[in-house]
Amino acid sequence: MTALLPKRVRRLASLAEALLTPHGMDRYLELVDPMLVRREVRGLVTAVRKQTPDSVTLTVQPSRAWPGFTAGQYVRLQVSIDGVRRTRCYSPCGSQYTGELEFTIKEQGLVSGHLNREIGVGSVVGLSTPDGTFTLPATRPERVLLIGGGSGITPVLAMARTLVDEGHPGEIVFLLYSNGPSDVLYRTELAELAARHPGLRVVHAYTHAKTGGDLRGFFSPAHLEAAAPWYRDAETFVCGPKPLMDAVREQLGERVHTEEFTPPALTFDTGNAEGQVRFKRSGRECANSGKPLLEQAEEAGLSPEHGCRMGICFSCTQLKTAGRVRNAKTGEVSGEEDEEIQLCISVPVGDVEIDA
Q1: Containing H/E element for 215?
Q2: Contact 148, 238 (CB under 8 A)
C-alpha cells in the first residue's frame, strides 16, 4: 500500500491531479485509501500496546511522503475528534534508521486521551514533517549522557537506539527517572539494548519508591557521580519535567542540551482592543482585552489545556466558531468559520466565539 508507484503511474497521477484542481488528487485518493495521498504525510497504526496504565505505545507506518527524521526531533500528529482536526507534538522514540515510527503518549489531555482510548490497529493519523534541533551532533561525542524523566524518555530513547544501531564505539549512560517500578517505560527494551551494546549502561532512578532501582530520590550531583563519573567530559541530553531539566542545567550549565523552545518576542496592542469574546460551551463572555485568547480564557475562570504558551506544542488548540483572530507570531488575520486555532498566539480582532 505504501510502496512506490511505477514511474508511468506517477506521471499519470500528476496529470490527473492537474485536471482535478482545485481539490487536487489527494482529496480523491483519500476517499479510496487515506495512505495513498501524495502530498500529505499519513501514518497507518500497525501496533498498539500498553506499557503503563496511563500511556499507550503506537507503532506507525508512514506513507511514502515521509522524509525520515533525526533522533530527538518531534512530529505534529493529527487526529479527528468529533469532526475537528486536532494536532499535538510527539517525539518518535525509535531509531532514526527504522522505517516505522514509534510514539509513546501519556494520557493527560483531550488528544492524548483519544490516542490512549480510541486509536487501534488500522487507524490512520496525520503526520507533519519532523522538526526541532534537539539532536545529536553530526560528529558523535565519545561519551554521551542521556537523562530522561517520565514520558520525556522518548527523544533520548531515540538517540540511544540510534547510537546502538550505529555501533557507537564510546560510552553511553541512560539515566532514567520514574516514580517507581510500575511507572518505568521500556524496561525490557532498555535491558535488551544494553545487552546488545556493551558501551551502553542503563541506570534506573526511582523518585518516590524507597526500595529498588539503581538510585533513589530526585536528581542530584551524587546521582551524576554514581551513574556517569566522567560526566564532565560528556555531551549531556536531557528531556523530562521542568524541575528535572532545571536541576540538570544548574549542575552542568551550558554543557547540557535540553528540548526547550525559546519564546518568540510577541507584542500585543491592548490599548485599542475592541469586541467581545464568548466561550460557547462554558457560557462565559468578556470584553476583548487584546491579550492572547489563552490568557483571556484563564482570566474568565477557564482552564484550557495548554503547554508551551508560545505556539509550538499545539496543546491549546480550540475551535473558533465565529470571528477573526490575528496570529501574534505571523501577523496573519484569519476569519474562517469553524477553524482550529492556537489560543496562546491568537488575538481577537473584534467579536470572537470559541467552542470552549
Answers
A1: strand 215-216
A2: yes
Grid cell of 123 as nine digits: 487507524
- pLDDT for 124-146, tens place per residue? 999 999 989 999 999 999 999 99
Measured in degrees and rounded to the nearest 5, phi and psi for residue 54 equal -110, 25
Query: Residue 15: what pLDDT?
Result: 54
Question: Looking at residues 158-165, what average pLDDT do you find?
Answer: 98
Amino acid at 180: G
Residue 190 is classified by DSSP as: H
- Residues 325-343 have a mean pLDDT of 90
- Going by their DSSP bridges, the two strands 84-90 and 143-149 should be labelled as unpaired
| Mean pLDDT, residues 238-260 taken together | 89
Which positions ≥6 away from 117 have C-beta within 8 Å?
107
188/157 Cα distance (integer angstroms): 13
**pLDDT, mean of residues 83-112:** 90
Is the CB of residue 184 less than 8 Å from the CB of residue 158?
no
Q: What type of residue sits at position 255?
A: R
Cell 546521582, residue? Answer: 223
Task: Supply the pLDDT for residue 7.
Answer: 59
Q: What is the pLDDT of residue 5?
A: 54
Query: What does the pLDDT read at residue 31?
Result: 47
pLDDT digits (tens, 9 = 90+) for 19-60: 555 444 554 455 445 555 656 899 999 999 999 999 999 999
Query: What's the Cα-to-Cα distance from 143 to each of 163, 168, 242, 344, rounded to whole Å?
Result: 11, 10, 24, 39
Q: Residue 76 and residue 250: Cα distance in Å, rounded? A: 30
Query: Which distant-in-sequence residues (6+ apart) come within 8 Å of 152 by Cβ?
Result: 238, 239, 240, 241, 244, 259
Backbone angles phi, psi at 348, to 5 degrees: -65, 140
Contacts of residue 100, Cβ cutoff 8 Å, sequence gap at least 6: 46, 59, 60, 61, 62, 94
Cell numbers for 125: 493519523
pLDDT value at position 23? 45
| Residue 253, CA atoms < 13 Å, CB-side half-sphere | 1
Cα-Cα-Cα-Cα dihedral sign, residues 133, 135, 141, 145: positive
Look at residues 273, 266, 333, 276 and name the one whose alpha carbon lies nearest to residue 300.
276
